[in-house]
Amino acid sequence: MHLLTGRGKQEDLMTYRNTTAISVLTAGLALSAGAADAQTRCGASYEMQPGDTLYQVSQACRVSLARIFDLNPDIGDIDDIAVGTEIRVASRPDGVDDSEAPARDTYEVESGDTLFSIAQAVGTSVAALLNENDNVNPFALAVGEILDIPTGDRQAGFRVRPLAGPPGGEVTVQARNLTPGDYVTVGVGPTAAEWRALRQVRVAADGELRTDVGVPDWADPGDILTYVIDTDRGVTLKSRDFDVVARDDVDDDQSIALEGRVRHGVECYTLTTPDGDLWSLTGEEFTAGEYVEIEGARADMSICQQGIGTVDVDTITEVQPQ
């Protein structure tokens, strides 16, 4: 099993030279070494070889995926790039790249600005701007007002559902407060520092991401995995522990994972999901008012008789609302 490590690790290529795709990629780098010194590790462009992925190209050339997409707007299907396709990784043959403006830490509000237009202009989300500027009234921005621009880790929320499953099963990955329009890499491995890329996904205009990926076939029941989102901006988000279980241990009709607000019910505590669904809760101690993630099994309605079903809760964790 060969795992790709997190970005910025110098040993990435050395560790995996014996895999076909990376070997081909490394050979391509050697051929362009002279140009790479002046521009990127790959020169101004890279020609796709059999088995290559854009993630491997970005890691080898030390160019972010976001930058690759900026330089190749007509790239098409990122999961089906033809062998021989030339991928630009630098803006000009001489390696001089004046298209990227220096990162800004503040923004001065101009006439006609809205919080959404500012977020789009500086490459962040409205939620991230509000988190960074607690005293700002989003409905009454003043011309000349100075806003702090989030940099680095903006406390992006990241969760996966469910938190257990068999090899080959499906996992839903969700995140918020990412940079709108960025391409990020979703991966999984035994640790957050040792992982294999699963797919590249583009962040939505509101800074949110939602995608389905799989539990890797190389994982064995009893393994504990970590799902990651590599943002190509110096931040790698990691999930809570994911337990790999045998398929026979999964009861697809009964197992359930939900999140929402706990409240007092008629006979049992209840949980109201973000979609407005109401569930009765049994099996644990609950605190009214908390926003939680729960996992458990569907149960008979018994005495609760409230909502669309009852969950016999195995685990409960207080979390921040998405």
Low-confidence segments, given as residue ranges, are: 1-38, 93-103
Spatial separation of the terminal alpha carbons: 35 Å
- What percentage of residues falls in helices of 4 or more residues? 10-25%
On the 0-100 scale, what is the average pLDDT?
Answer: 75
Order of helices and strands: HHHEHHEEHHEEEEEEEEEEEEEEE
By secondary-structure content and strand pairing, the structural class works out as: alpha+beta
Question: Could you give a short account of the major beta sheet?
Answer: 6 strands, mixed
Q: What's the CATH first level of the largest domain?
A: Mainly Beta
How many individual domains? Answer: 4
Rough shape? Answer: flat
Number of strands: 18
Q: From the 3D structure, determine the CATH topology of the largest domain.
A: Immunoglobulin-like
Percent of residues in beta strands?
25-35%
- CATH homologous superfamily caption of the largest domain: Neocarzinostatin-like
The tally of helices reads 7
Features:
5-stranded mixed β-barrel; Membrane-bound Lytic Murein Transglycosylase D, Chain A; 322 residues; 30% strand; 18 strands; flat; disordered N terminus; 7 helices; alpha+beta; Immunoglobulin-like; 6-stranded mixed β-sheet; 4 domains
Structural features, described:
- With 322 residues, this protein is α+β, with helices and mostly antiparallel strands.
- It has 7 helices and 18 strands.
- The protein folds into 4 domains: 12-88, LysM domain (Membrane-bound Lytic Murein Transglycosylase D, Chain A), CATH 3.10.350.10; 106-148, LysM domain (Membrane-bound Lytic Murein Transglycosylase D, Chain A); 158-249, Immunoglobulin-like; 255-318, OB fold (Dihydrolipoamide Acetyltransferase, E2P) (Beta Barrel).
- The strands form 5 sheets. Strands 6, 8, 9, 11, 12 and 13 form a 6-stranded mixed β-sheet that branches. Strands 14-15-16-18-17 form a 5-stranded mixed β-barrel. Strands 5-7-10 form a 3-stranded antiparallel β-sheet, with no helix packed on it.
- Helix 2 packs across helix 4.
- The chain is flat, with a radius of gyration of 23 Å.
- Residues 1-38 and 93-103 have low confidence and may be disordered.
